Amino acid sequence: MKIAFVTTEAVPFAKTGGLADVSGALPIALQRLGHEVIVLMPAFRSVHMTRQPISETDMVVHANIAGRGLSARISRSTLPQSDVPVYFVDNPELFDRQHLYGDAQGDYQDNPLRFSFFCRICLQVIDRICPDLQILHCNDWQTGLLPAYLATRFDGYQWMQQAKSVLTIHNLAYQGIFPKDTLSLTGLGWEHFHFRALEFYDQVNLLKAGLSFADALTTVSQRYSEEIQAPEQGCGLDGVLRDRAERLFGIPNGIDPQIWDPRTDNEIASTYDAESWKEGKASNRAALREAFDLPHHHRVPLVGMIGRLAEQKGWDLVVQAMRQLFADEPSVQFVVLGTGDPRYQDALKELATRYPDRLGLHLGFSDRLAHRIEAGADIFLMPSRYEPCGLNQLYSLRYGTVPVVQPTGGLADTVTAVDASSIADGSATGFYLPHYNVEGLVAALTEAVQTCNDRPELWDQIVRRGMRQEWSWERSAKQYLRVYEQTISRNEN
Ligand code: ADP
Questions:
Q1: pLDDT digits (tens, 9 = 90+) for 364-389
Q2: b vs e for 29-48, b when ≥16 Cβ sit within 10 Å of the residue's Cβ?
Q3: To test the ligand 1 pocket, which listed residue (15, 309, 365) has its Cβ within 8 A of the most ligand atoms?
Q4: Best of 22, 255, 392, 471 to mutate for ligand 1, by most ligand atoms within 8 A of CB?
Q5: What is the C-alpha radius of gyration for the chain, rounded to an integer number of angstroms?
Q6: Phi and psi angles of residue 445, each rounded to the nearest 5 degrees, phi first
Q7: Is the whole model's pTM more than 0.85, yes or no?
Q8: Cα(206)–Cα(143) distance, rounded to whole angstroms?
Q9: What domains can you pick out in the chain, each with its CATH number?
Q10: What angle do CA 13, 16, 20 make, to 5 degrees?
């Protein structure tokens, strides 16, 4: 099968979140199963800073966006340790910026122009290098126009006759909503400005364009695919998704064992496996405490957190819970790595200054530190309000770092809570918040800490069970292939 995977992030070239991990691994897994995959993405500034060699091609591609002629050079690389080609759409004015989507002032104003242009250029690049394309796999709102272009045969390329589109929703909350005059940048006519296409409360919604026009939709866990069809988590698009329920599939993400494996990880103090986890953790925990100047306290486990400082991730609860926990005798210590909303940055900074022996904090983005936290912490906390899939709980399972999570979306699908029956059948891998509030968070953490301290045999069982689970990309890739195959055959009939 010939597949073009269109994305705005891919490890190691550009990353703000889980989309980058998916885009760096899924195309390789698809290729290993015998398929031909190319990746297309913008040449953001970070692309030029990676160690992967990038070469120029002779392709220079033009697009007329609302009367303005713009062009892009196309450069090329490969995903690391593979020969999956990555084509970069290079227009320095639009993409050579410090951040991908916006800065401290907010989203870049010209995002509709940037991503309309990116999508338009992708159409032409596909025409040049992959005219026999079968599957156009798009990701999130930035690529939402592509299914609309394909369905409306925009610019009339030959490859559009046979290709089908698949759109993966990595996070429904980010939709690319812009004033209605943005429609002129897309090149699509007003006949598409209605509630079954791009229109959303009298504005243009680029994700909705993709949801309406794609031949198939996927999202990154079964549970999330159900949750987003109801108003509470539907972000205003639950009706559209219910309409398309028959073509909506939940496929969990995998993890890349080349990058995330405690047996081979060269970022961590000591490597370990499910047999040697106690010694491995002890050494990594000591190194992590030392790195953050945290003293050792008897019976005080280390809780790790990594992620975007966004409301979604439950930082408001975390900050309140820390205030409560830090006022008492030490029961837990935290190591937090994150960047994002200044509100949470400030609150965490204040707590770290006031309680330097309780909270180790790094405000920034650091892959290396992420590995060291996964290896050194005893418990990993993810109290997300919603979580399409979540990767850190999967990394935590693999690293023997017991996850404490809110049972939502992918967290509910991938973590089995400790209870009488999961203990009896040996399936327990973590803990759930009993209620989504500060008390619930403290209760779940307390249960985890007590289990860690007082029931070492059960803890050992939980750790080993998590470490032995397989979250391979091969399994996910096979599910994507089934969706591709169904989509191709369904539309041919
Ligand atoms: P989301 O995509 O909503 O941000 P995921 O859990 O799916 O959440 O994926 C987040 C990815 O980004 C993980 O690989 C995580 O380790 C990484 N990450 C997030 N914030 C940071 C940070 N500050 N430093 C290093 N890695 C981070």
A1: 999 999 999 999 999 999 999 999 99
A2: bbbeeebbbbbbbbbbebbe
A3: 365
A4: 392
A5: 23
A6: -65, -40
A7: yes
A8: 8
A9: 2-254+474-492 (3.40.50.2000), 277-470 (3.40.50.2000)
A10: 50
